[in-house]
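Cross-posting from the modeling subforum.

Setting up a comparison between two proteins and wanted a second pair of eyes on the formatting. Protein 1 (sequence, then structure tokens):
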Amino acid sequence: MTLTLHAYWRSSASYRVRIALNLKGLSYAIVPINLLREGGDHRRQEYLARNPQGLVPTLEVDGVPLTQSLAILEWLEEEHPLPPLLPRDPICRAQVRSFALAIACEVSPLCNLMVREYLDRVLKLDTAQQQAWHTHWIARGLAACEAMVAGGTGPFCFGEAPTIADCVLVPQLYNARRFGIDLAPFPTLLRSEAAMLALPAVQRAAPEAQPDAA
């Protein structure tokens, strides 16, 4: 099986897929997609043929494109079940998925490149207004996620092993720091992040470790 990941180094969705691929011990090639190049690689017809939404990442499996990071994580779990990134217990599995979706669907999209460009170019918000937007939505989302895992024994979000929740959390906290968000109110999330960042597989997935890192 040949895996090719079309990704942008600082994309949180790309980051979470790299983490999962590395945790699964899978080999894959990376094709950088430069979102900031004039015209944007993601808007070129060649890329849109793989991913009609023009989003990253796209994981090609023997030439067949898979899109949407959470769908890719689910495919990885089904096709490569070891080590597992979802608990065996159905209730716990639902809780892990709920946490991951809370970030991937409710927090991350509100601060991605398309939204930032709209805030800037269409709504004409100044820097302070844009920062207020990011602070509000990221902090609100992280507060909910902290409540979801508070009281857990850790060291990861849902116990003693990483899950897709942790794969999604690490990139979101990376982005939160980019936007200057105070993370002190989220001690359980920070504990889970620290456990993840201690893993070599996660370290290799870091944005700065990617071939296209600026």
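Protein 2 (same layout):
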Amino acid sequence: MTKWTGRALAAALLLVSSLGAEVRSLTILHTNDLHARLTKLENGRGGFAALAAVIRRERANCQDCILLNAGDLAQGSPVSTIFHGQPVFDIANLFGYSAATLGNHDFDYGWMETRSFIRTANYPIVTANIVGADGRLFTPKPYVILTVNGLRVGVIGAMTEELRTLSTPKLMEEWHTVPVIETARKYAAELRDRTDLIVLLGHINGAEENQFLTLAPEIPVLVTGHIHTGLEQEVTRGGRILVRVKGYGEELGRLELKVDTEKKTPVSWTWKRIPVDDRRIEPAPDVAAQVKRWEAEVTKRVDQPLAVSKRKFDHAGVKRLIEQAMRDETGADFAFINQGGVRDIVPKGQLLVRNIWNIMPFDNRVVFGKFKGRDLPPAVRGERKVDPDREYTVAVTDFTAANQDAQEQLQTKNLEFSGDGGLLRDLLLDWFRKKQVID
């Protein structure tokens, strides 16, 4: 540092002090949408043991760090599906989260299991806008105040208002979301005098992210999940910041802030996405041991040869395979699955039973019904010509049947699917096994 630079910095600090303001640093490490992917992905990224190692490296000698998770810790692997998510929360306790919020898939085993997750977590789980019929909160608290490096950081949890259409109704029963922006702003006002910075930890969609940036100036930092693709760089608007990393544990986010404690807002920031790759870091032994333990519980069931794929199928290609399987196995004329229900690719080469569990971790059932050609939406009939007066059999999942009006591609109402074709995952396993070769 030069003499003049040093003098300028001293003068600036003196001016800040004279104005009564204080600038303190805060580092937010963050994850989202881990989806129970305990082991690394096909691309070599991720895995809970490697993620834990990256977290610990980034936290080492960091006096101003907090670690947040933006929802969907459960659902997405055989371990989670078979044991209803509990082992995933047990292992995640080793990460050292400071706070987390819930994701829609954390409700996939029913709300009572979600309550069990909250009890299992050794860190606070907060969501402000999931309530019962009488207005009581689903989580113990809507927010938590974390103290780090002399800063009081208020973390408000938030769930997308789409929750109703992202869950099978019977899993939620009397619980529902209230307006997310309005509710978060209400709690931000409550936190204003008790904190130096407010952070929204939200499992929200893109439109809701944009609304927060536009309509909630009192919440200057947004750490979000739900959109698995992550951001290439932070989004900023009017001094507010939004960050989100890739799902499935491929990345850890690191947001470094300088916070003006008088204005209660960041004055500067840097954000980076840190790859999680066990070729670059030694996986955490304690987490690796837990992953190995639980994977051993399911390996005999899912690591069995199933079929061979002559090529790789992306998510859109897998959707077509699933619909073909539903038609072939039920005898239906048409089949439909929502694209969001396809959770993985089909790789080229030897396929295991595990691949099907990864594609379809949900316990969704196949249901079917008969409908006139005139009642079939374009997303179901595709380019095939139909006789408007003829009856056709249509197969869908029970999730789709329960949320017809919310399916963007479907946009149907009141179609009754009375036939039951069993678990979709079992149907897919039977179909792949019969096919032997997928091309």
